[in-house]
Amino acid sequence: MSGMRQREGLIARVKQIRVAAAATDRQATDATEPAAATLHELELRVAHLEQQLRGLQDSVHRENVRLTRQLADVTARVEPAALAVALDKDARERGL
Question: Residue 26 sits in which domain range?
Answer without folding.
Answer: 2-94
